Amino acid sequence: MAIFLSNRRNLCHPRYNAVASGLSDLLHWMQSYMCKKQRGDSTLHLSATAAPRISPRMEIALANHAATQTPAKVRPASIANWLLFVALLVFAMVVVGGITRLTESGLSITEWKPVSGALPPLNEAAWVSEFEKYKQIPEYTEINGPAGMTLAQFKFIYFWEWVHRLLGRLIGLAFALPLVWFWVKQAIPAGYKPRLVALFALGGLQGAIGWWMVSSGLSARTDVSHYRLAVHLLTALFILGGLVWTALDLKALARNSAAKPAKLTGFAAVVLAILFVQLLFGAWVAGLNAGYVSNSWPLMNDRFYPAGVDVGRGMLSALANDPFLTHFVHRWWAWVAVIALIMLARRTKKAGVRSASIAIHSAFGVQILLGIATVMTGVNIVLAVLHQAVGALVVASAAWGVHVIGRNDGQ
To answer: What DSSP string runs through 212-225?
Structure first.
């Protein structure tokens, strides 16, 4: 009975009223038994007919309580910690991806070999062979070749692309192997297997998207398609948000076995849509090298609306393809995103999770400062990498905030 009485917050629940009734029945039987013993009744053993009867209400209460208990094998807290570790790896992947892009390293490996490609060239002949393959693509013939790229310079850009791909492989293993272990041990809570499999499938798809992006720059152009780059980056950030969300659901389940997964509210969907637009234009700015079109703030080359916007193919085409216009939208839509995130943080704090509110405010505050600094320094590589890194933290903190306001942990 201590199972029930240990939770004082719920003593007024109907279930506990039923338990109290059952306890009353038990005490009544014990009182009768002791009276018989004092009168010298020799029948002191507990026969089937003499045993106390548990009232129907108490039986129902016991059954309901048992149904809400987490099975001993299920380990939601451990799975949540594992997912947060994988999220940290994905964050590192986003950072390395930013370095790869800013150092123009993404096209240095011209083949996709998921297994054998894990090893870099191990001797000089292998390095020369890889360099010769790189010499066949437009980036070398039109840009780096005329600039006199050496083998040593090629090794530098190859290193960053190799690290980026290697980290992707490690993330795959860091997800797949524990997933199999938890599955075999029956440690995954009911209803979470499909979600974990979906996250794993998204990770595999992300690898394919990465090669799809790289392949766009191997034949007819000197860089990758900014559309494909946006898909690659946004998929990574979606996976990051999904990992954080699922981990938070599991942590709630570890605290309360009756907890239900959080729901995406209408307000949260609007906030995430606004953030998606900002991230999309940020990816296009990166892919179009649009950060270089202006190094002043708040004006762009002494104008609020930049000169040189090409709308010859229509405004929609210009929004997606003109570096001046994508830069303009990215720097001013940021303030719409800020307003939305402030509102999200306020609701998060109102829901009682002040730490999530602080995380949201801190992330977007630092991100705004880094964005301005990146522009005004002519895209300093350190600041630009930090800008992409903190952008990932904005996504993670936003996922935390929308989870808080959509949470229903059964209390």
So the answer is: HHHHTTSSS-SS--
- Residue 240 · residue 395 · CB < 8 Å: yes
Amino acid at 306: P
- Tell me the pLDDT band of 45, cut-offs 50, 70 and 90: very low
Locate 59 and state its tokens. Answer: 């039986």
Let me know whether 343 and 274 are in one domain.
yes
Domain check: are 172 and 295 in the same one? no
Q: What are the tens digits of pLDDT across the range 93-119?
A: 999 999 999 999 999 999 999 888 899
> pTM (2 decimals)?
0.81
Say if residue 48 is in the same domain as residue 90. no
State whether residue 315 is helix, strand or coil: helix
Please name every residue paired with 260 in a beta bridge, in sequence order, or none if there are none: 408
pLDDT tens by residue, 289-338: 999 999 999 999 999 999 989 999 999 999 999 999 999 999 999 999 99
In a domain, 250, yes or no: no
Name residue, tokens 């969300």: 245
Side chain identity at residue 144, one-letter code: N
Pick from 14, 33, 67: which residue ends a domain? 67
Contact 103, 379 (CB under 8 A): no
Distance of CA 283 to the CA centre of its chain: 18
In the block, residue with structure tokens 């041990």: 185
The separation between CA 388 and the C-alpha centre of its own chain, rounded to angstroms, equals 15
The span from the CA of 167 to the CA of 210, in Å, is 13
Are 50 and 87 found together in one domain?
no
Would you state the pLDDT for residue 39? 57
Q: Which residue has the tokens 């946004």?
A: 234
**What distance in Å separates the CA atoms of residue 212 and residue 155, rounded to the nearest whole number?**
23
Residues 253-287 pLDDT 10s: 999 988 899 999 999 999 999 999 999 999 999 99
Cα–Cα nearest to 370, from 336, 331, 316, 327: 331
3-class DSSP assignment, residue 80: helix
List, in sequence order, every residue forming a beta bridge with 300; answer none if it has no partner. 303
In a domain, 53, yes or no: yes
Range of the domain at 212: 72-240
Residue whose tokens read 């034949």: 219
Paired residues of 318 in beta bridges: none
Residue 248 resides in a domain:
no
Structural element, H or E, at residue 88: helix 76-102
